[in-house]
Specification:
By secondary structure, the protein is of the alpha/beta class. It is 36% helix and 30% strand. The strands form two sheets. Strands 1, 2, 3, 4, 5, 6, 7, 8 and 9 form a nine-stranded mixed beta sheet that branches. It is globular and about 75 Å long.
Length: 397
């Protein structure tokens, strides 16, 4: 009997502790947002939100309707602009599925910290979305471009950004937590990747843009934008962007073109590992960067013998030279062009030499310009492909 009463009491207690779906919403009552664009306006902020049209995503029968709709609102604060969406959107906008936040270039240059405060404070927003900059255009225009292979343009941008980062290496996918960490920490500056619109944005938002094998207007991943504080101050070029990714150990795979016999050989980098140390020499910061890469011969346009170990070593030496050149260009850009420590040299000194860092941090902008970097690059070509000789060499024979 006591056991029965005990079980009954436990069951009743559990029932009282169970929560109901008091905050649940049906799908037909909400509008799911996939991307948010933030631009500057005369009032303060111009907000553009990309909303999914569920019927078009799920339907197997194509119609003339687009898969997404964009709504705009403005406000003195970002929160006010979000609330003003209610006068346009037919349903409550649901932000938990946002994949991407786009800052207009003008908004990024004027500062993004106020926007980030709202994005990190709002309870509906998750923190796993990517942040990018609309280069040379307004962010709102970017979300209106119709893309042929992805019905949702924000999904296209996110997948292209990740693909570019993994296979080409001049871009860098940044999430909210990482951006906030870099903006608040000493000795490292933030970066965001740029997105450009090729063609006329007004043409790109028309469904006719999807009716051509070569669309008139396309979206392309650009290079890496450099911040000082929370303000965008400029852009790295492609070589500088790749050098930056070598420095932060973010190269998964890329291609290195090296000259041979007045033509080129393409070496596919399949692995790149960075080891970096910070030293103080006579109270001057000094960085030692070591990169080890493995690669394969992907394309050979010149008449060389790949069975000869000297040929392989020659190609490896040229790969090493190319990588060091790109890393040097990244250092030069961060020190001389922008004077912004995006490579995290200050954070490295802070971590390894905290006592010296306390003396340097208040004038790190000046000290950073004088930081010297020593490079050690080791390249190892593992495979030459399905053939061990040049096709040109075979043809000549």
């Amino acid at each position: 009997m006591r056991a029965y009463v005990y079980r009954l009491a436990t069951l009743l207690t559990c029932l009282f502790l169970l929560t109901s779906c008091w905050s649940s919403r049906e799908l037909n009552e909400i509008a799911i947002a996939t991307a948010i664009a933030i631009d500057k306006s005369d009032e303060g902020y111009l907000l553009t939100v990309q909303i999914i049209n569920p019927g078009e995503i799920a339907s197997d029968s194509p119609t003339n309707r687009t898969a997404t709709t964009t709504y705009r609102s403005s406000g003195e604060t970002l929160f006010e602009a979000f609330r003003r969406l209610t006068v346009q959107a037919p349903r409550k906008v649901y932000f938990s599925h946002v994949q991407m936040i786009v800052f207009g270039e003008e908004a990024a240059k004027s500062g993004i910290v106020q926007s980030l405060d709202f994005l990190s404070r709002d309870h509906e927003m998750r923190t796993d979305f990517l942040l990018v900059i609309a280069k040379d255009t307004r962010a709102g225009q970017l979300l209106n471009i119709l893309t042929p292979m992805d019905k949702i343009s924000s999904s296209k941008i996110v997948s292209s950004l990740k693909m570019s980062e993994q296979n080409w290496a001049p871009t860098y996918a940044v999430k909210l937590d990482e951006l906030l960490n870099k903006l608040s920490n000493e000795g490292i500056k933030a970066v965001l990747t740029g997105i450009v619109v090729n063609g006329d944005p007004n043409v790109g938002k028309n469904s006719k843009n999807l009716e051509k094998t070569e669309p008139s207007t396309t979206i392309q991943i650009a290079h890496i934008g450099v911040f000082k504080g929370d303000k965008l101050i400029g852009w790295l070029n492609e070589d500088e962007s790749k050098g930056f990714n070598y420095f932060i150990n973010n190269v998964t795979s890329t291609i290195v073109n090296v000259p041979c016999s007045q033509k080129n050989a393409s070496i596919e980098i399949i692995s790149a590992k960075l080891s970096i140390e910070g030293h103080m020499e006579k109270n001057v910061p000094h960085i030692e960067a070591t990169v080890r890469v493995d690669g394969n011969v992907g394309d050979l346009e010149c008449n060389v013998d790949l069975t000869n170990p000297r040929t392989i070593r020659m190609l490896e030496a040229m790969v090493e030279k190319d990588i060091q050149s790109k890393m040097e260009s990244a250092v030069s850009a961060s020190q001389d062009k922008f004077n912004s420590d995006i490579l995290g040299f200050g954070a490295l000194i802070h971590r390894e030499h905290p006592d010296q860092w306390r003396m340097l941090k208040n004038h790190w902008n000046e000290e950073f310009k004088n930081v010297e970097v020593d490079y050690t690059i080791h390249a190892n070509i593992q495979r030459t492909g399905n053939i061990t000789d040049s096709v040109q060499r075979k043809d000549g024979e």
